[in-house]
Amino acid sequence: MTSAEGIQMHWLAGSLCTDTARRPAGSVPVDGVSDLWLVGDPPRAWVRTANAPMRCVVVVGTCGASDDELSHLAASGVPDDVVLRWPGAYAVVEQTTVATTIWTDLASSVPVYTTVFDGTTYWATSARGLAGLINAAVSSERLAVELLAPSSPLLAGTTTYFEGVDLVPAGHRMKISSSATAVARVWWPGGAPDPGVSLRAELDAAVGVRVDDTESPSSDLSGGLDSSSLALLAAHRLSPDRSVAAFTVHAPFDRPAGDLRYALEAAERPGLAHHLVPLEAGHLPYGGLDTIPATDEPAPSTCAYARFDYQMTAMVDRVGTDAHLTGDGGDSLLGTPDAWIADLFATGRYREAVEEAVRLARMRRRSPGRVLSDVLDSLRSDPADALEAWARLARGQVPSPRAVRRLRQLLPLVNLQPWATPMARNHAAVRADQAAESALAVPAGQRAVWDVVEQMGEVGRTAYADAQLAAESGVHLHNPFADSRVIDSYLSGVAGRMPSPAAYKPVLRAEMGGILPASLLTRTTKGVYTPDYHLGLRTHLSGLSSIADGHLAALGLIDPAGLVNGLRRAAAGLTGGLWLLDAAIVCETWLRAHHSTALPVWESTSDNVRSEVLTP
Asked: What is the CA radius of gyration of the chain?
């Protein structure tokens, strides 16, 4: 397959069997399952089915279950821990004569969305797909939240970028019957650890379920701990008979340094076929934004799309990759949140808490007293109270300084850039009030763990948007750090004793001894790419300025002149907060791609019924 051919991003849609059911146009029915339809070109075994007299079971995603194990589910029923039974990232659907039940994975790596049309509940693995069913408008509230507080799962909740389309939360069970739809959490983090399970073993199994049966597996090899671990685990599994193609994207160099030096050392291990992909001027951040395809939501790789697409094309052209591993999610899973210090205080471990605060202060070159003050404020921070305070702040009201300090322990402060309009603030405040009504208190001593859980849900779901981008080049992306068993095993292993927030991924480094080179095992920093973004901003400033007066402005969410001024100041190095400007750029780019691409069309199941059947 060449990069020009690409693949149609796959998604699955279903509903309760009714006389008026609809299906996506161009879809094919899944064999043996009523009212379940497949769109696009999935990897082999992305949809697998098993049938028994009382039920049929469908596994959606990458799953290490055998055919016999799936048959056992169909015969005996699906347990609530089903997404933890096997390696991979997958959702499970059980269909009986009276209900459809869906279990979501722990990071929404296979996101499941729902909507109601003509009195019937529909679900799909594509939010945009369901938007086509109900002709949904873009959600101004969701856009406003992303503009003012990017990547804030506590604010976003189960909303999507389409009105009337909702996300089924990660780690939940949704049961749809003719009378009701009920959603319940079925997984809680930090359970009793299994002494026979380790992070390395789960990562190895997660890698294996992707590469063992593929013809041409590939992996990122950035030089960081996460991608290097995955690439070398794959190489270890495949060597000596096969190899994994490892791709390192890098700036031109005279002498290797930084990430590239680490990548070159890792590439010396057996089982790796190393490919260097040198960047050119045309691959700077903020380039190629007018070529981005439509996705379910703004993709994390939007600002770096020129580089992203360049790598995807190189991988397909050089090795025809059919499964590509990335290290996305490693930082969110393995980095201990500062809230761990508050958890130590909350559980009476005062000496440990003070020691951790001093260690963190030293690393960040801050006052230990200031770190301790922030920790004590976070102890008094309740999610509902923080959301209500955030809503007041968004509306221009000024909470007390103490309330603001407590607030920032759970949520980013409202973007006070001049280009954010009062309408944007009001939309976001409305959403914050709604989120406060359903917010649950975090159990004492578990705030850090729940912070990780929320961030992994954000990582897994947004990574699916990156997978949609990659599909345009013919690449199937995989993110093993967002697999359910990997998440569960790590959080269970550190339950009650997380690593220090000042330590750099100590669990991964400890468990990857013998796999990673010595230089990587001692690495305690990440690569810094901010200078590339500032250079890209200066290079593409004219084109970025032209997008200011676009869809966001038409929705009344940004002031074009204010945004242009912010871009110019950032390009000149006169202000920080580039991530906030990026949020506006990413949302506007997504809107342009969305409005330039027709929504998926749905048709009655009684019209143009095809004879194609998907064989599992």
From this structure: 24
For residue 527, how far is the Cα from the chain centroid? 21
| β-bridge partners, 22 | 604
Where do we find the tokens 């992909």? Answer: 277
Look up the pTM and report it. 0.94
Torsion angle of alpha carbons 228, 234, 237, 240, nearest 10°? -90
Instruction: Give the strand pairing for 88-95 and 56-63.
Output: antiparallel
Ramachandran angles phi, psi of 41, nearest 5°: -120, 85
Question: Which residue, 69, 540, 570, is CA-closest to 307?
Answer: 540
Cis peptide before 300 (omega within 30 of 0): no
Q: Say how far apart CA 380 and CA 482 lie, in whole Å.
A: 30
Section 560-589 average pLDDT: 87
Instruction: Confirm if 166 and 183 have CB atoms less than 8 A apart.
Output: no
Torsion of CA 367, 369, 372, 376, to 10 degrees: -140
SS (H, E, C) 381-397: CCHHHHHHHHHHHHCCC
Angle at 246 between CA 231 and CA 479, to 5 degrees: 50
Q: Describe the chain by its helix, strand, coil percentages, rounded to 5.
A: 45, 15, 40
Q: What is the pLDDT of residues 155-198, one digit of tens each?
A: 999 999 999 999 999 999 999 998 899 999 999 997 777 777 89
- The secondary structure of residue 277, as a DSSP letter, is E
The identity of residue 393, as a single letter, is L
Report the phi/psi class of residue 342: left, alpha or beta, with left for phi > 0 and alpha for psi in -120 to 50: alpha
Q: Residue 40 corresponds to which tokens in the numbers above?
A: 């696009």
Count Cβ atoms below 10 Å from residue 514 Cβ, excluding itself.
Answer: 9
Residue 12 tokens, joined: 């699955």
